[in-house]
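Sequence only, no structure available. Ideas?
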Amino acid sequence: MSDALVGRRKRQAARREQETLVQILRNATALSNVRYDGGVASYLEVLDNERQLFNAELELARTRRDERLAVVQLYRALGGGWAQ
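Reply:
I predicted one. Tokens follow.
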């Protein structure tokens, strides 16, 4: 049971970190678009930021899935009502 609880907490912390990264990359993408519109940056910079954001969003989805799976494991460890 304690392993399941620790696993859930670790995945929750990982999700929060990934959410922070996604927000930072959203801001960076918005800034690169402003820089491009102002003629200061190339479109390659915009595309690179969008690629990084997309990858971070995919990882966030995976992290959320893992967090939910950890909750299921915790319920199972606590007896969860599943018949074997």
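The radius of gyration is 19 Å.
Hope that gets you unstuck.
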